[in-house]
Hints:
- By secondary structure, this protein is an alpha+beta fold.
- It has one domain (25-155).
- The chain has helices at residues 3-17, 28-37, 42-51, 53-57, 59-71, 139-148; strands at residues 20-23, 78-88, 94-103, 115-122, 130-138, 150-155.
- A hairpin with a 7-residue loop joins strand 4 and strand 5.
- Helix 2 packs antiparallel against helix 5 (59-71).
- The longest helix has 15 residues, at 3-17.
Amino acid sequence: MKKSDLKQIIKEEVQKVLKEYTDNNFSGKRELSDVAKRKPDMFGQQIFDELFPMGAKSESAAIRALKNYDTISQRSPMFVHVQYHYFEDKEGTPYFVHEQQYYNSNFQDARNPRVTVLTLEKNPNSENEEEIGQMLVKTEDYIKDLKRLKITKRGS
């Protein structure tokens, strides 16, 4: 196993335990690449659009924010808030969304992208569990969507 693979596994395991951490080697390009690998198909995109309409509309702005972050010659630490929510849609179908919010409120420029990566699953913890995919959204728009959902359980 390569050292970089081991570091990634450790990072993922730590993220499961912590609700917030600091990423001193954050790369917007790397995050965009990771999200692109788990992009939803057209049916999954429709689910994202229905459940998170404000967030879905902000995807282009979120992508620009991460690209702009990488253009800064001197990068800053990125704070990452990790949280999850179980909720139901209007028909009562259960969903699970895991979020990673990227921010650095010490700055009001491109060093504070204020974006969230959403990982969405349908029918969580069942034999019909299905990963819908990942989407990058602006955090403030996602929070508006979150307030409209019928949350059944949340955690950090």
